[in-house]
Amino acid sequence: xxxxxxxxxxxxxxxxxxxxxxxxxxxxxxxxxxxxxxxxxxxxxxxxxxxxxxxxxxxxxxxxxxxxxxxxxxxxxxxxxxxxxxxxxxxxxxxxxxxxxxxxxxxxxxxxxxxxxxxxxxxxxxxxxxxxxxxxxxxxxxxxxxxxxxxxxxxxxxxxxxxxxxxxxxxxxxxxxxxxxxxxxxxxxxxxxxxxxxxxxxxxxxxxxxx
Length: 211
Known about the structure:
Layout: H1 2-5, H2 16-32, H3 38-53, H4 59-83, E1 104-112, H5 128-132, E2 134-142, E3 145-147, E4 152-159, E5 162-165, E6 170-178, E7 181-184, H6 187-197, E8 204-208
Parallel strand pairs: 1-2, 2-4, 3-5, 4-6, 5-7
Antiparallel strand pairs: 6-8
């Protein structure tokens, strides 16, 4: 179905409705725990990233393509985890999470780090290679400290959180920041966070390479 909506051929871009429908399919699959063949997702992600890089594309379609590209990358990690017999983390155990060196999928729950003894960190392990293999989806994250770099964030709400960005790849699809404190060192990183803050609590789609 995704291949029909986002065809890898170079003759034309998919429509706004098709891109949004593809994003919706991935959202449902993540929530239901339904995986796909990771290799089949590569050409779809490639097409979407070419759309994101295009200078001659409708702004609404461009924004939708960003959200879809992040979703496809995250869904590939989710599906790769299933391929090796892993399962997503879907329960918050009231302590900071530490990532596996393999693929990670974390989602479908609410977090309030204000109730965590010893600190207010959501994901403890900030190893870059671990993070690149980690998708976080359908989460509400309250009163936590969290770096955004490298992960794929899909349908996530940050509320009263301390959010840091350190210049790594940034992958946001329908991510909302409510009453958050943004922490960034360096002018380029602060500009990215200012772009997020300017949304004033509205959902953000953002795809930024490492700076």
